[in-house]
Structures are given as structure tokens and as C-alpha cells.
Amino acid sequence: MTSSFDPIGMLLTLLDHKVRFVLIGGYAAALRGSPMLTGDLDICYSRETENLSRLCDALIELRARLRGVDEEVPFQLDRKTLLAGDSFTFVTDKGSLDCLATPSGTFGFDDLNAGASDEGIGVATVRVASLDDLARMKRASRRPKDMVALEWIRGLQGETEGTREA
């Protein structure tokens, strides 16, 4: 596996397989105007049966394997496995890809898709989480790096410290 980061390549593979997802995380924030750099791609995927099969096909094409796990550990990448779990962190031929069914602070795909918008990335269009939803996920995670990212998101929303509860 290569360690190069090709987010457009990952997104195009997901789109080629007609995976239903909303782009979340740092790359989504960057598309919304955040200057923070990210080294992985995060998506919230629909857990519909057909979508799980399409996601598996895309992950197989990307040669995904679990990140942070010894290669000897058996992992069956199929619809049943995705259905049994919620969040998966992968390394692929195009970089790190995190697939979350229910990101922190959300109720999953339908919740995020309701506020998402279609955004152009090169030759394709992807669903991207709204700034409000990105802020909600960052607040819920409470990780230090997410608290820093939250400040950038607040700035993009035009908020001041006292106008919205953190």
C-alpha cells in the first residue's frame, strides 16, 4: 500500500460505485473554507443494504485494509461485516479513509444528508456536511484537535465566542 494521499481519487472511486455518503471531517471543512490541513478522508455512509454492498466494492477496489492492525489479523470486507460495525478506519492505495455510520453528535447518514449540500470537486460532485453539522461533530468528539478545528468552523460561520454555545 502506498502512503500518498489522493482524496479526489478516493471520492471518485466511491462515486463510481454509486456509494451514498456525506463527506465529513477535515476535508469537508477545507471544502467549506477551513485552512486546516488533513491527512485522511472521512465519510458518513448510508447503512442501506445495497449501499453497504456498493461501499464494499469500492473499498475492495481501493485495496482497503484496517488501519493500525497487523496484516495477519483476518478481516472479511463484506456487507455483513460493515453492518455489524459502525466505524472503520482503513488504509488504502490512495490514503487513509475513515468510514463512519454514526459520527459523534449525529444520528448518521440521514441526519447529515438533510443539511448537506452538493459541492464540486474537480469533475465530480459530492455531498458535503454543513458547517453547522461539522461544528456539531467537532463539539461532540471533544478531542483537542477537533476543538482547534471548531474555532476555524466558528470563524467560517461568522460567529463570535459568545453567540453560540460550544
What descriptive keywords fit this protein?
166 residues; alpha+beta; 5-stranded mixed sheet; two-stranded antiparallel ribbon
Largest sheet: 5 strands, mixed
**Which structural class should the secondary elements be placed in?**
alpha+beta
Shape by Cα distribution: globular
Instruction: Tell me the series of helices and strands, N- to C-terminal.
Output: HEHEHEHEEHEEHH
Mean pLDDT: 85
Helix content bin: 40-55%
Number of helical regions: 7
Estimate the strand proportion: 15-25%
Using only C-alpha atoms, the radius of gyration works out to 16 Å
How many β-strand stretches? 7
Summarize the structure.
With 166 residues, the protein is an alpha+beta fold.
Question: Would you kindly provide a written description of the structure presented here, covering whatever features stand out?
Answer:
The C terminus is likely disordered. This protein has seven helices and seven strands; from the N terminus they run H-E-H-E-H-E-H-E-E-H-E-E-H-H. Helix 6 packs antiparallel against helix 7. The longest helix has 14 residues. By secondary structure, the chain is an alpha+beta fold.
Topology at a glance:
Blueprint: H1 7-16, E1 21-24, H2 25-31, E2 40-45, H3 49-61, E3 65-66, H4 79-84, E4 87-92, E5 95-100, H5 109-115, E6 117-121, E7 124-128, H6 131-141, H7 144-157
Parallel strand pairs: 2-5
Antiparallel strand pairs: 1-2, 3-4, 4-5, 6-7
Helix pairs in contact: 6-7
